[in-house]
Amino acid sequence: MEITAKMAQNMVEILEEIKEECFPKGKDSYPFTEWEQKRERVKQRLRELPKYVDQAADMIQFMKPKAGQHKKLNVQKRTMLFLFARLMNKSNRDVEEILVLFEPLVGVRLSYKYIERLYSDPEVKTTLHNLFILLLRDEGVSGDFSGDGTGYSLTITKHYRSETMKTGKDYLHVFRMIDVDTGLYVACGYSNVSEMEAFQKAMAMLTKLGVPIDSMALDRYYSSRKVIELFKEETALYLIPKKNIARVGLGWSRIIKRILEDPYLFLKGYYLRCLSESGFSADKRRFGGLVRQKREDRREIALFSIAFLHNIFTVRIRPS
User: Which partner for 293 in 85, 89, 165, 298 could form a disulfide, CB atoms 3.0-4.6 Å apart?
Assistant: First the structure.
């Protein structure tokens, strides 16, 4: 059967009707008992975090510092301090004041400048990257992913959600891929240019990690042949064409045939992308939607740390 552009446009309209009928807006009863049981896993991850940090640091061969250079804290303590600062979601000066209470435990006095320099510390950045991979390895990923983009404000006077024009130097674009089975982020990308560039960086990260993609659910913003070409033919793509689609091509033809086979099952897979939106909402409530860092490399590690901390705190309840 030949798939035409007119057929694709009619199919999009039918999907809209099915969506209204089978996926009404509203909240179903939430399994709070199961959530409380799985929440114990979060506590376990937090207890094991120092062990993970030691393991991640041991994977790195550090160069000996030059004569006269000396770090107040070793890389394990610097990484834990960095994660503590990110978890507090406070300014560096506020974190400095909080650390006064823990000075007897830390053993040294730390300034807000010391905390800010952690964002560009290559040893901390490498350890954090290893932490991300180690946690994914131990938790496991299913190969079924959802992806979406969001943004973070660079100034306290503007909020990403309320602004209609999300371009320019006041915002950063972030794309994160989430495992629909575990709720863990498996890859992320950052861009100060566009959400599409952030998506491409996330895809590059996923390729480097060597994680196989069995399925992927994406928003209509990514409905293009260039995006489809990034995935292998055997990957089940849950992607709906735009209403004004003019050309179909081989990539769209395969997707549309799967839609025609079972529209309900396709929409069920497509709406797994809502898990990404839920993850973004939870992250911003816990870690904030403002990036305070001025240097680009420090902004990137600040956003990457949110992806890691999300994986520490996430609890995924699959619907029955």
Answer: 298
